[in-house]
Amino acid sequence: MALTQGPGRFITSERLGVLVLLIIAYGIIPTLGGSYLFDAILTPFLALSLAALGLNILTGYAGQVSLGSAAFLAIGAFAAFNFNLRVPGLPFAGSIVLAGLTAALIGIFFGLPSLRLKGFYLAVSTLAAQFFVQWALTKFSWFSNNNPSGVIDAPALTLAGTAFTGPVGRYLFSLTIVVLITFASTRLIRSQTGRNFIAVRDHETAARVIGVPVLATKLTAFGISSFIIGVAGVLWAFAYLRTVETAGFNIDRSFQILFIIIIGGLASLRGAFFGAAFIVVFPLLLSRLGGALFGGVFDSGVLEMSQRIGIGALIILFLILEPRGLAALLDRIWDWIRPRRVTA
Amino acid sequence: MTRKQGLPLMVFDYQFFIEVLVGGLLSGIMYSLVALGFVLIYKTSGVLNFAQGSMLLFAALTFVSLEERGVPFALALAATLAVMVALGIAIERMVLRPLVNQPPITLFMATLGLSYVIEGAAQLVWGTQVHGLDLGIEDRPFEVHGVLISQFDLFAATVAGSLVALFSLFFRYTRIGLAFRAVADDQYAALAVGLKLPRVWAIVWTAAGVVALVAGLLWGARLGVQFSLSLVVLKALPVLVLGGFDSIAGAIIGGLLIGAIEKLSEVYVGPWFGGGIESWAAYVVALGFLLVRPAGLFGQKLVERA
To answer: Which of A223, A320, B16, B158 could tie A104 with a disulfide, CB 3.0–4.6 Å?
Structure first.
């Protein structure tokens, strides 16, 4: 007990928990299940988690609401495709980083209105990114290498000389990237920059008074968030869909990512994962449940609509009952069931 | 675009310009109609109601489905109106009241969720197929000084105009209108003098529902009643940004401007980009404008600007 308690120890209960999670994710999960588990559940879960993580840094921590996340997913995916195609000899890891940087640059550009605008006005202005990027990517066929169908097969995934093939390989590839970025994000949140984000979110004027560079902080938040969402876009297109196309990066996707962080918990890195898990699993549960209860009446149309209603209602419920989302909810449950030492 | 081919670049076709401009202005009025619903709610409760588009879809879908089942026009209209009133009251009870005193952006996200619920419910009940809607207005273009004007657009513009006049008078001269303005001005002061906020909100949401019905019928007659009808909300947002979220006049002027800019830029600027710039041109214009005047054309000065 003594080894895992108290500050200043190398092994804290938190670190132990992360270690256990990593062992499960790398050691145990790849041995179970068929390709359905990986291709249809785990890989999209990881990509969405990463996108939500990126948006949470911008919206949850820095307080800037964005409705254009899907645009940055698209930028990431298309940038990675083009770097991979047009720069010979560039390792795939290089393409990913460059794709993230491209998304970051464009993100900073579309973040410029945040210097003047707040709240709804800013949220509306991020829609401009959504529509413009979607238009540009479909309009200029150079981005999709003049492919007539607009649907491009994604190249194989290789990281440091290892090719990741098959459902498990793609899962491990995504997992590795998600783990790396999540660790970097936990560091970021606890750094001066992360504290600046929160200061700007909570009270801009107060932040300015104590010397936080508000404008630079906002743009940094846009840049970092777009970088992460761009990398998530690479995972979404290359590891999950295995095609690069604009169709999936529409405004519904942007809303979905926003919903993930509302349900999971704003300003919580864990929340992004909880929310993404929920969003991925919810339709599957609903279709099983609906099929069991109503049989044939519960067709795909009914499923889609009841899914919309369910998600929408949950958003409202979470905002009313638990604005800090699943992360806070699970924390409370854990507090309630965890083993407690009896104190005299 | 075929008209431009063969013309030397310097010759400016005024008649064509006017025709595009008028078409843009008339379609802009349709945007204003959607924006009006937003403004009503924003003015009195400080909420950007993203669900306005889905309310529009819900109203149009309910009306069309009733009519297709043989309900006469007037009865279908009355029934839809009743449904919209019930919806307005339900929203106030179940969404707004529990979220009172929350930050505006939380309420905005709640209306995002609400729009999903309403869209889902509308299509779950009435199905997802496209319905044609005939309001009995002939859409025969007529000519004024060589400029073709759509009769339907003119009708829509008249409806929108009278609706705006009606709301302006209502806000100015009735007791409830006065209450609306009081609530918009200062919620605490309004509470202190005994105004019942829940009732005011219920009425406002009902009014927005009525506007949604009118807009839904006109847009539905234009585009067909289907899911994409709820996307006109995205067309109305730049209008709001340009006109200011809390100004009825702004919604109208903003709508006219956006409509005109959209059509003109599509025709005169679009070809340089390969066309299709309608989807974002309005946003870019609204944004550029916003950087100069953050409160929009007619909006009240925002306290919270960076």
So the answer is: A223
DSSP string, chain B: -TTTTTS-TT---HHHHHHHHHHHHHHHHHHHHHHHHHHHHHHHH----TTHHHHHHHHHHHHHHHHHTT--HHHHHHHHHHHHHHHHHHHIIIIIGGGTTS-HHHHHHHHHHHHHHHHHHHHHHH-SS-B----S-----EEETTEEE-HHHHHHHHHHHHHHHHHHHHHHHSHHHHHHHHHHH-HHHHHHTT--HHHHHHHHHHHHHHHHHHHHHHHHHHH-BSGGGGGHHHHHHHHHHHH-TT-HHHHHHHHHHHHHHHHHHHHHTHHHHTS-THHHHHHHHHHHHHHH-TTTTTPPPPSS--
User: CB–CB of A123 and B108 under 8 A?
Assistant: yes
Q: Examine residue B183 and state whether it is found in any structural domain, yes or no.
A: yes
Contact between A110 and A128 (Cβ < 8 Å): yes
Q: Taking 60 as the threshold, does the pLDDT of residue A3 lie above it?
A: no
- State pLDDT tens for residues A216-258: 999 999 999 999 999 999 999 888 888 888 888 888 899 999 9
- Residue B241 distance to chain A (closest CA, Å): 7
Give chain A's mean pLDDT: 85
- B37 assigned to some structural domain: yes
pLDDT given for residue B9 in this prediction = 52
Cβ within 8 Å of B, A 143-202 = none
For B120, nearest residue in chain A (alpha carbons): A305
What's the mean pLDDT when you consider all of chain B?
Answer: 81
What does each C-alpha distance from A17 to A11, A20, A162 come to in angstroms? Answer: 10, 5, 28
Question: Which of A121, A255, A312 has the CB atom closest to B290's CB atom?
Answer: A121
pLDDT of residue A198: 94
Give the nearest chain B residue to A112 (CA atoms).
B291
Domain region containing B89? 14-292
Q: What pLDDT does B68 receive?
A: 86
The dihedrals phi and psi of A308, each to the nearest 5 degrees, come to -60, -50
* pTM of this structure: 0.87
CB-nearest partner of B106 from A301, A311, A323: A323
**Phi, psi at residue A224, to the nearest 5°?**
-65, -45
- pLDDT, residue A125, reads 81
pLDDT top residue among B78 and B250:
B78
> Which residue among B106, B113, B305 sits closest to A116, beta carbon to beta carbon?
B305
pLDDT score, position A108: 94
- Per the structure, how many domains does chain B have? 1
> Number of CB pairs < 8 Å for A and B?
135
B51, part of any domain: yes
Answer whether A322 touches B (CB < 8 Å): no
pLDDT digit string (tens) for A287-323? 888 777 776 666 777 888 888 899 899 989 999 988 8
Interface of A with B in 79-138 (CB under 8 A): 113-121, 123-125, 127-128, 131-132, 134-135
Residue A27: CB atoms within 10 A of its CB come to 9
Q: Domain with B288 in it: what CATH number?
A: 1.10.3470
Which range among A117-121, A154-158, A306-310, B57-61 shows the weakest confidence by mean pLDDT?
A154-158
Q: What pLDDT, on the 0 to 100 scale, is given for residue A187?
A: 93
Q: Would residue B306 count as lying in a domain?
A: no
pLDDT confidence bin for A151, thresholds 50/70/90: low
Compute the distance between CA of residue B230 and CA of residue B207 in angstroms, rounded to an integer. Answer: 18
